Amino acid sequence: MRMKYILSEVLTGLWRNVTMTIAMIITMTVSLTMLGASLLLFFQVNKMEDFFYQRVEVSIFLKADVTDEQRANIKSALEGHTLVKEVTYESRDQAWDRFQTQFRDAPDLVKATKKESLPESFRVKLKDPKKVKELQDEFLTQPGVSDIVDQQELLKKVFELLGALQTLALTVAIIQGAAALLLVANTIQVAAYSKRREVAVMKLVGASNWFIQLPFVLEAVFAGLIGALLAFGGLVAAKFFFIDGSLKALANVLLPIDWSSIWLMLPVLAGAGGLVSAITAWITLRFYVRV
Questions:
Q1: CB distance 167 to 88 below 8 Å
Q2: Residue 127 has pLDDT above 90, yes or no
Q3: How far is CA 127 from the centre of its chain?
Q4: Helices (H) and strands (E) in the chain — how many of each?
Q5: Strand duo 58-62 + 145-150: pairing
Q6: Other C-beta atoms lying within 10 Å of the C-beta of residue 117
């Protein structure tokens, strides 16, 4: 009987303040979507760092007029070097084939690129990627060497950008979350004020504080859970239509987001939305509304 009464009070309270309830759900949805997106981005950046740094190479590009003797000397020096783990030679033909494969989704770029503009090179994996500078200092002056590119430096710039996006997404999520919590607190105060007479009567007949406060707390939890479900639905839609749809061509570069990571967001968002809303409602009732 008590549970039936509490649930009826929750539904009545939600309907009585329907516009504020909708606003609370929308705000919660936006903040939880940003939270979920920032968490997915955080996990994805860490995954990409592990994946790409394990495959990082140093590219030693050769001059267009490099001689056979110079090429052989460079290869011999690399294969016998104490810092080098593995050496792979890539001819101009191989570089052209790889370029066409990598950019097959950008035919205009392939068409505008000349095969002669792609230099032959040595792809070098080091035993210790931190010692690239030593290799650069030694081989950059070698006859026939045009340039030495450390892929790790290029990756650092990419991950710095992704890190900035992480911070931005998390900052927006925190701001939206604060707005949602303020709206939750305000909605609970309005709901409690509109029922002040019923609350007073219930206290006179000896109802406990938790029995009086529970319907208000459940209203906030309901809004938080609905917001979490809508936010999860937004992440699923983004995965289906964008990540696996229009942005699928970038999967080889950015790595695909696993469905397991998406499903992990459901309990995380539901827990965050429901628990934080409940705590906010309880604090509001405890310190700002005398019930």
A1: no
A2: no
A3: 31
A4: 11, 4
A5: antiparallel
A6: 12
d(CA 25, CA 219): 11
Rounded Cα–Cα distance for residues 145 and 66 (Å):
8
Q: Is the dihedral of CA 248, 168, 46, 225 positive or negative?
A: negative
The closest alpha carbon to 169, from 44, 3, 42, 291, belongs to: 42
Alpha helices in 82-207 (DSSP H): 92-102, 107-112, 132-139, 151-194, 196-204
User: What is the DSSP code (8-state) at residue 89?
Assistant: E
**DSSP code per residue over 183-223:** HHHHHHHHHHHHTHHHHHHHHHTT--HHHHHHHHHHHHHHH
Integer Cα distance of 174 and 153 in angstroms: 32
What pLDDT does 242 receive? 77
- Which residue type is seen at 222? F
Q: Which two tokens stand for residue 250?
A: 């970038």
Taken as a whole, the chain contains a residue count of 291
CA distance 225 to 230: 9
pTM of full prediction above 0.70: no
For 36, list phi and psi in degrees, rounded to 5.
-60, -40
**How many of the other CB atoms lie within 10 Å of CB of 268?**
15
Question: Is it the case that residue 8 has pLDDT exceeding 70?
Answer: no
Q: Which amino acid is at 251?
A: A
Are the C-beta atoms of residues 235 and 39 closer than 8 Å to each other?
A: no
Residue 148's SS3 state is: strand
